[in-house]
Amino acid sequence: MCRSIKTLRPPVLPEEATEEEIRAAALQYVRKVSGFRAPAAHNREVFDQAVAEIAESTAKLLRDIEVRGRVGAG
Fold first, then answer.
1. pTM of the complete model
2. How far apart are alpha carbons 74 and 40 in whole angstroms?
3. From CA 24, how far away is CA 14, in angstroms rounded?
4. Can you say how many angstroms the Cα of residue 57 is from the centroid of all Cα atoms in its chain?
5. 39 in Cβ contact with 13 (< 8 Å)
6. Residue 52 neighbours by CB under 8 Å, 6+ apart
7. 2 and 32 in contact (C-beta within 8 Å)?
8. What are the C-alpha distances in Å from 24 to residues 18, 28, 51, 70?
9. Which alpha helices (H) appear in the chain, and where do they start and end?
10. What gap in Å lies between CA 74 and CA 58, rounded to an integer?
11. CB–CB of 16/65 below 8 Å?
């Protein structure tokens, strides 16, 4: 859907994704889905809230996902 969003989990990244990388991916997703690169002032709050919620969900997914066959995986 959004080709500019990169995979944020090892082994694609050599280490864990940063908060900045997670937020950037969430922002790209919200931009794509909403059709707005930057929302109008009257939509700023809902736009920013969506980015925050998606970033939070993404961080949880990356924290909880199990990658089988990964050396050092628990």
1. 0.79
2. 45
3. 18
4. 8
5. no
6. 26
7. yes
8. 10, 6, 9, 26
9. 19-34, 44-64
10. 20
11. no
